[in-house]
Specification:
The chain is α+β, with helices and mostly antiparallel strands. It is built from five helices and three strands; from the N terminus they run H-H-E-E-E-H-H-H. The longest helix is centred in the last third of the chain and has 14 residues.
Length: 132
Amino acid sequence: MQEEFNEVFEAIGWSDFAEIPEGGIILLTKEFLMTLRTDTRRDGTYVWFRLFNTNYELTLRQFSNLLDFSPQCTLSEDLAGFNSAEFWKELVGPDAPRKKSIAHIRHPTMRFLAHWLTMVVFPRGMIPAVSQ
């Protein structure tokens, strides 16, 4: 499973994603994630977020470049048709419970990745076990 993560992170240019030695990263990450949103207009999709008490508005291409994604990993401009409810049903299956939980994700790698990202962004003293 670790090899799968390494391959995915390497493919999108995040090979050193988990190496975060800076101390204030937790508060900055929370500020970024709590303000992150997208806005689809006639002239394209824009990403909005706040960081260091400054508001930013970027195109998807600018956002991709800012995150240092590989040029091969271009972001699609077609977000207008994205349906989060359908995406969740695809992750957990047709009999998806109303309450969303990482534990309901069927694919073990996706479930582990969701747990891992949660623990990196919002660390706790104990990492919960991921069952098959």
